[in-house]
Design goal:
The complex is a heterodimer. Chain A is α/β, with parallel strands linked by helices. Chain A has two domains: about 200 residues, P-loop containing nucleotide triphosphate hydrolases (Rossmann fold); about 100 residues, Helicase, Ruva Protein, domain 3 (Orthogonal Bundle), CATH 1.10.8. Chain A is about 45% helix and about 15% strand. Chain A has 14 helices and eleven strands. In chain A, the strands form four sheets. Chain A has a five-stranded parallel β-sheet with strand order 2-5-8-1-9. Chain A has a two-stranded antiparallel sheet with strand order 3-4. The two termini of chain A are about 40 Å apart. By secondary structure, chain B is mostly helical. Among the domains of chain B are: about 140 residues, no CATH class; about 150 residues, no CATH class. About 5% of the residues of chain B have low confidence. The chains are: A alpha/beta, B mainly alpha.
């Protein structure tokens, strides 16, 4: 499904806007260039993102800075075990007006452009599942009434990989709705030094808006017009298929592979990355760059592999190494002859 | 990557992609077809050699080669179904190998402009055609060699033009014998028939083992008969000589000796498969007694002597007994000390063992058994009482060693001095 071809100058203009956004984020978040670029890519692809990392690495700060730079309405919900679904989606309130009583829907914090779901794995599965419809359908249904969420709508959730007591790991269905799962790593010394020099506790950095809501929506629409060559689409299909056990050597330790939604997500992400780099067409290089973030949390390893300490990122890395970039590659017989 | 004239660039990239796809498709074809083609060419070469050897037209050998070519093509097409490269695949390969981020595919789709062509463009493949074409070339070389290299002469068994030597010698000997009037021609008929029977066999079998052996046997038989006849005739001549120049005046003793020699000669003639003519044979039979000799006139004696001498010389020559066979030499007569006076060297007497030393019955039996018995053959049996083992047991009740015998002796001898010392220390 390709739209009207995107002119190259339009792609260049989009890149210029996104360059400004990236520069703004990098001026606040130090040493996380890859994370910032990937978050921008996910934003342009209109995908939800799950950030995983230890406390204090800047996950929340990144989301807050992003929302300020985009002039988008941002809500933050600290997920706790006693959080109820209505605390996110909103509740019907009995209202008496002119002698009549009726339930009036009181929108919850999910009605925003950017929802920061902090430590999402601490909420109960019931509350987590309340986000399912919002993330996928971009609407909320309460008492039989559906309420559309504002556009654009992004969920940026965080979770930390320690202190797992009393947490509820996200179910596979919900994990699948996140476009990216990004690991936030700690900073090296020089970056820490820079942070120390530029930041103070209790003082929020001033972030001037770079893009407004309309511009973000326009960028998202532009990304959908990026051309996806058949060879790239074929590579995505073969890559996702290869995540299933029995389809490749790398997937030998996989219990369940990635879903077709992962393929769609990978295509959208590759388009967004191409636009971020000013291209009017996606490339195989985009797939290779984004596959670890898109596929990593969509693959379930078997018990033995988990016991051995294997990670899904290892499987994806091996897949990218093994899978020929081109469907019609030279046969193995010719490769063996080194022809 | 800057852009240039779009049309020129498009043509350039398209041509480059076409070349690459053609190269890859050729590789795919050769990969599938090379084994069949090479095998077909080798088979064709062998067929050519066979056809040339058997005298057929070697162009028949083209048939396997053509079949192999068709089969290779069919296999290559079927095996590579869906794998053949087109221009789009080649463009994808070029952009991947050169890190062009799908720019060529996008340009081919009309999304972007064609990029400027790099000089040092790679396609990621280093084509080594010789690895695929090498076996085909080798097989083709073999095929050409099979078609043009001269073959050695036909190895068919030629019809023998010359008869075996034994046959020729037999025939020559028979011809010579036929020239001797005193020899009965009918006695030669059996040999002639046997020779004709050998000749009647197919020429291809003339030099077979059985045929050669039969020919040699026939020749040896004829030569033996001839030699016997020659010696018997010489004996008869000698007998007539012993009877004296005029038998009617000879003594009774000399006539008796001459008659005896004549009878010996007649027995020798009977032993030979050659026979004398009826007239001469009857005359000799008549003079096998002293009375017959005495009645012989001088003229008859001379006549018989001439015939015998003639027959003796003829058969002696045929038997290869040399010139002068039958001539009297000093000492040839019995008791005169000549070299041929005795019976000659006894056959099979070349041995170091003194024949007078007999080994006795037991020795002869053992020698015979030892020489002739094969492996596993029973050379003899005997019945004896079992031998009683008079040695005492090695140990007695409680395991205490009594004497060094049996297993204990082996055990003691197997222990090294160091081990023995350890055992002694342990049990102390």
């Amino acid at each position: 499904m390709n739209h009207t071809p995107l002119p190259e100058d339009e792609a260049a203009a989009a890149r210029h806007s996104l360059d400004q956004l990236a520069e703004r984020l990098k001026s606040v978040i130090f040493g996380q260039e890859t994370l910032i670029e990937t978050v921008i890519t996910g934003l342009v692809a209109q995908g939800h993102m799950l950030l995983e990392g230890l406390p204090g690495l800047g996950k929340t700060e990144l989301v807050r800075t992003l929302s300020r730079a985009l002039s988008l309405e941002t809500r933050r919900v600290q997920f706790t075990p006693d959080l109820l679904p209505g605390d996110i989606t909103g509740n019907p309130i009995l209202e008496e007006k002119a002698g009549t009583r009726r339930f009036v829907f009181q929108p919850g914090p999910v009605f925003c452009n950017v929802l920061l779901a902090d430590e999402i794995n601490r909420a109960s599965p019931k509350t987590q599942s309340a986000l399912l419809e919002a993330m996928q359908e971009r609407r909320v249904t309460v008492l039989g009434e559906s309420h559309a969420l504002p556009a654009p709508f992004f969920v940026l959730a965080t979770q930390n990989p320690i202190e797992l007591e009393g947490t509820y790991p996200l179910p596979e269905a919900q994990l699948d709705r996140f476009l990216f799962k990004l690991e936030v790593t700690r900073n090296p010394v020089d970056v820490l030094e820079k942070i120390i020099m530029h930041r103070e506790i209790g003082v929020d950095p001033v972030v001037e808006p770079v893009l407004d809501r309309a511009a973000v929506e326009s960028l998202c629409a532009t990304a959908r017009r990026v051309y996806l060559p058949p060879a790239v689409a074929n590579y995505i299909a073969r890559l996702v298929n290869a995540t299933h056990p029995g389809e490749s050597d790398a997937a030998a330790a996989v219990k369940f592979g990635a879903s077709p939604r992962a393929a769609i997500a990978l295509a959208a992400a590759s388009r967004a990355r191409a636009l971020r780099l000013g291209r009017a067409h996606a490339a195989i290089e985009d797939i290779q760059a984004l596959a670890p973030f898109v596929l990593g949390h969509r693959i379930l390893l078997d018990y033995a592999a988990r016991i051995e300490g294997m990670r899904t990122s290892d499987v994806v890395a091996r897949l990218l190494e093994e899978l020929p970039t081109q469907d019609k590659s030279v046969p193995k017989s010719l490769q063996a002859l080194k022809v | 990557m800057s852009t240039a004239n779009p049309t020129v660039m498009e043509k350039s990239w398209t041509a480059r992609a076409a070349r690459l796809s053609w190269r890859i498709n050729t590789l795919l074809f050769l990969d599938a077809a090379a084994p069949i083609l090479a095998g077909g060419l080798v088979g064709s070469a062998l067929t050519a050699i066979l056809a040339r050897t058997l005298g057929f037209d070697p162009r028949w050998a083209l048939l396997p080669a053509l079949i192999a070519l068709v089969a290779a093509s069919v296999v290559a097409v079927r095996r590579n179904k869906g794998r053949w490269w087109n221009s789009s695949d080649a463009l994808t390969r070029l952009e991947i190998a050169n890190g062009m981020e799908s720019r060529l595919s996008a340009a081919a789709a009309g999304v972007t402009q064609w990029p400027t062509e790099k000089r040092e463009l790679l396609d990621g493949y280093r084509t080594r055609f010789y690895r695929l074409t090498g076996p085909i070339a080798a097989a083709a070389t073999l095929w050409i060699a099979a078609m043009i290299v001269p073959l050695p002469a036909s190895k068919d068994q030629p019809t023998p033009t010359a008869e075996p030597l034994a046959w020729q010698q037999t025939e020559a000997l028979l011809e010579n014998l036929e020239e001797i009037e005193e020899i009965d021609p009918e006695s030669l008929t059996a040999f002639e028939q046997a020779l004709e029977q050998l000749r009647s066999r197919p020429p291809e079998e003339w030099y077979s083992h059985s045929s050669l052996e039969a020919g040699e046997s026939l020749l040896a038989n004829l030569q033996d008969s001839t030699r016997r006849m020659a010696e018997s005739l010489a004996g008869a001549d000698s007998a007539l000589g012993s009877a004296g120049e005029n038998p009617s005046q000879s003594s009774e003793a000399s006539l008796e000796q001459a008659a005896s020699e004549m009878r010996d000669a007649l027995r020798g003639m009977d032993a030979s498969q050659l026979q004398l003519g009826a007239e001469l044979s009857a005359a000799l039979q008549n003079i096998g007694t002293p009375s017959g000799l005495r009645q012989l006139s001088l003229e008859q004696l001379q006549k018989i002597q001439i015939k015998i001498l003639k027959a003796s010389e003829g058969t002696g020559k045929c038997a290869g007994l040399g010139e002068g066979f039958g001539d009297k030499a000093p000492g040839d007569e019995p008791g005169k000390g000549g070299i041929s006076r005795g019976p000659g060297t006894a056959p099979l007497s070349i041995t170091d063992r003194n024949p007078l030393e007999t080994p006795g019955i037991e020795g002869a039996l053992q020698s015979s058994l030892g020489n002739e018995a094969g492996i596993g053959d029973v050379v003899g049996t005997r019945m004896t009482a079992p031998e009683e083992n008079t040695e005492p047991f090695a140990t007695r009740a409680g395991g205490t060693a009594v004497i060094e015998a049996g297993a204990e002796a082996v055990n003691r001898q197997a222990v090294t001095p160091a081990e023995r010392a350890v055992l002694q220390r342990y049990f102390q």
